[in-house]
Amino acid sequence: MKIQPYITKLESSKVFKNFKKEYSNAFLIAGFFVLDYETGANLHQIDYYMPTQKKVAAFTLDGEVALKVMETMNDRIPQKLVIKTKVDLDALKGILQDEMKNRNLTENIKKIIAVVQTTDGKRIWILNCILSGMEILKAHIDDESRTVLSMEKASILDYVKKIPGGRGSNAAPRPLTKEEIDKQINQLDKIKAELEREKQKLPKGKNKKGAKGKSKKDESEEELDEEAMGVTVDNMGED
After folding, report:
1. Boundary (domain end) residue, out of 109, 139, 154
2. Which of 27, 48, 76, 139 is 20 to 30 A from 70 via CA?
3. Looking at residues 151-159, what average pLDDT do you find?
């Protein structure tokens, strides 16, 4: 599954041509993809930055090309992205699985949420994966060398505990920069949305019940929601 056919589809669409006429200085900054290996309900999105307006134009390419203009959360200008990647979308799972074997990780990858963007002049894949057992695998891949730069697995609760200001954190939270806050909120929003979709697929009545008739999994996901809100509220005033 290559990215180029989606770029061709985008650039040949009337929606994109009209957009470029109006915003000629807009430039490509990222590709956002959801690869669902269970349902095949994938998402392909290409993002352009509009420097004059300081907004992002997100083009979804599944079916008819659709445009949504979004506000940016800071004034930082994103780096331009050359979308001719060395790593194809269908190669991401294999690269991750090879590295997982090296680390003795045996879970199955159910879904990959992938962002490709330019970081410090390099094209980097930033991946958040949903594993069997509802665990999260986070990884960065260098596109040029196909090297896994980092990989980390965590349960939903472990992920919450690592967020500064979360209930599970023992250390006193340091003030976050606005850029760090924006990055965390963006990651949480995307991951929570995908976890919610996974929750809807699970058969009801099979989880061990906790207090007040709620399953342990439901309680964990509610805590994730509460902690995410806590990060937003507790740190929005910090510079």
Report:
1. 154
2. 139
3. 77
